[in-house]
Amino acid sequence: MDFFKPSLEQGLMVLAGTSSWQKVLLFFGVWLVLWLPLALPLSWVLKWRPFQPLTPQKKLIFLASLYGLVPLVLWGATAVEGISAQTYGLKLTLSPGPPPPLVQFLGSMGETIAQGFLLAVLGLIVIFSVESLGGWVKWNREKLKNSREILLPIFAVALLIGGIEEAIFRGFLWSVFKSDRGLFVATLISSLLFALSHLIWEQKDTLPQLPGLFLMGLILVLARWVAPDQTIGLAWGLHSGWIWGLTCLDTAELMTYSTERGQWFTGWQGKPLAGVGGLFCLLFTGLVLGKFAFF
Q1: Is 135 exposed, middle or buried (0-12, 13-18, 19+ CB in 10 A)?
Q2: Where along the chain do its domains lie?
């Protein structure tokens, strides 16, 4: 171990002088290198080629292989920089023995995650209630019974996706840019990268949603900023709640959007973030979070 100590110290000194952009590029570069050995065989098995549209099932498989590496890359980043996970908004209070580490991890931020999740669902209820009153959506109540079996699986997926993306964008990216560029620039850059990252999987449907995705990134940064424990828990819950609510409605086909009118409010081709309603939902959430920040 003494043999490696000088080189490790030299590496830490070099990294300390590295700019935020270099750290971010290094993070994503390592992540990509680790993912390629998984992505290439998956592409062959799933018979997918770059720039081809992905079915929801294939996209979920690719996401699972990609996002599953994030804890390892984040751990490497904290180890190399010699910082705690708390710097990236991750509150870890793990101890040996039961309960399992995952349960301990969720429990350490469980309260704020639950608060964010409930706030997200409340916002969706408000917006879809307005759309119902406006006659812009039609509810398929006969499919309500069949939707119960998908609630828990989609909740698990939403929790994982929301947590991983928050750890990346409001955890690592925002923290790195904030320490180097300040709060304002960090918020803008992390939110812009968050919006643009959605173009990787889908381009045509994502383009109209870019302003909404950018605003969503800003709201999630606000959630990280106002969180009482200074973790990503509140943002994690919000993100997961939005994914869960919208995916459940879409998968169970519980509602049908009007194709004749109201798309300006409900969203272009049924994409909430491409309409006024989705933007209002985000602004409503922002106002609620702002109350905790300024009052």
Answers
A1: exposed
A2: 1-83, 109-295
CA-to-CA separations, 128 to 141, 147, 219, 275, in angstroms, rounded: 15, 18, 20, 12
Confidence of residue 292 (pLDDT cuts 50, 70, 90): low
pLDDT (tens digit per residue) in 109-154:
888 999 999 999 999 999 999 999 988 988 888 877 777 788 999 9
Neighbour tally for 70: CB within 10 Å: 20
- How far apart (Å, rounded) are the C-alpha atoms in residues 171 and 24? 12
Q: What is the CA radius of gyration of the chain?
A: 20
Point out which residues pair with 139 in neighbouring strands.
255
Alpha carbon 207 to its chain centroid, in Å, reads: 18
Spatial distance between the Cα atoms of 153 and 101, rounded to a whole number of angstroms = 21
Instruction: Give the predicted TM-score (pTM) of the model.
Output: 0.88
What is the C-alpha to C-alpha distance for residues 250 and 227, in angstroms, rounded to an integer? 30
The answer to whether 285 and 123 are in contact (CB under 8 A) is yes
257 sits in which H/E element: strand 255-257
* Coil/strand/helix, residue 137: strand
Measured distance CA(240)–CA(162) in Å, rounded: 5
| φ, ψ at 137 (rounded to 5°) | -135, 150
Distance CA 286, CA 293 (A): 10
